[in-house]
Design brief:
Elements lengths: L1 E6 L4 E6 L2 E11 L14 E4 L3 E2 L2 H8 L16 H5 L3 E4 L2 E3 L15 E4 L10 E4 L8 E2 L13 E3 L3 E3 L2 H13 L3 H6 L3
Parallel strand pairs: 3-11, 10-12
Antiparallel strand pairs: 1-2, 2-3, 3-12, 4-9, 5-8, 6-7, 6-8, 9-10
């Protein structure tokens, strides 16, 4: 009787209670070459101030090429892209200085790239998890202007939600009896 549905080709999310839509929001879905999969599963978590764990596909396609051989007197790799995006390198739960890694002998996929919570975090202030084999979920975004576009196919497969704070209020209000003030107090 209570569910969240994302209509991918319509770029819209609806929360439905007893057959009536009680909340609507625009969404940004996967690009044509990284389409949002059609799935159905139970939402298990609402995570406030999330960390972003960079998936291997993004590590390889969008980070590794920018770290390519830097040349110069001693040669080397340029890890400045990590700093520009506030990404940390971790292995075994420990932070590692990316300049201490011999990237010619190490595969970036063997390291965790993590973006801590904060104003520049690509997941924004909240994410909504429903475990699935595609590792997609719904989340806030720092790119709010995308919601103004008629065609909103701009993500890597996840669904970016307009007004995610309100979605959290609707879901947690229904599921946990949380007030809007309690939801707002969880941010930070």
């Amino acid at each position: 009787p209570f569910y969240v549905v994302v209509n991918i080709p319509e770029f819209m999310l609806r929360v439905v209670k007893d057959g009536t839509s009680i909340h609507e929001a625009r969404v940004v879905v996967g690009k044509p070459d990284k389409q949002t999969p059609v799935i159905s599963d139970e939402m298990e978590e609402v995570v406030f101030n999330p960390y972003w764990n960079v998936p291997n596909s993004i590590k390889m396609a969008e980070i590794a090429p920018y770290m390519g051989y830097g040349g110069g007197f001693f040669g080397g790799y340029d890890t400045s892209i990590l700093q520009r995006h506030g990404l940390l390198i971790r292995s075994g739960g420990r932070d590692i200085d990316p300049d201490s890694i011999d990237w010619s002998r190490n595969d970036i996929r063997n390291f965790d790239l993590v973006q801590p919570p904060g104003p520049d975090n690509v997941l924004g202030r909240v994410k909504f998890l429903f475990p699935n084999k595609h590792d997609v979920y719904m989340h806030d975004t720092t790119q709010k202007s995308l919601f103004n576009h008629a065609v909103r196919a701009e993500s890597h497969g996840c669904m970016r939600v307009q007004n995610p704070e309100r979605l959290a209020e609707v879901i947690l209000g229904h599921d946990k009896g949380w007030s809007s003030a309690r939801v707002e107090s969880t941010f930070d």
